[in-house]
Design brief:
- It is built from one helix and no strands.
- It is rod-shaped and about 145 Å long.
Length: 121
Amino acid sequence: MATPLPQWMRLLGAGLTGLLAVLFVVVLQQTREQGQRLQQLQEKVQTIENANDLERTNALEEQLRSTVERLQTLEGIEQKVQSLSSQVQTLRDLQRSRSSLFPYDSREPGPRSLPALPQLP
């Protein structure tokens, strides 16, 4: 039969076991705290990223509005140009028909025509 361990060895073993248990609990608690801090930091980072995304979205929205306004202005100008081109063509047609009916105007010495305007695309 084996001889029992001396009393001091048993106390030392119990003390070491208790010390390991306390150390395990401390490490476990620190790990949990670090996990919580990490979660908080991730939430802060996500909040900041969302704010930055919102700012970019607002900037893009403003650029889009400005572009739409410019396009609408250009469309209005294009309609005016088309209207004026149509009026010029009508005036040319009238002038041609007038010239063919009345080759010489009594007020002017000879036939008169409108200056040629560049053709629009």
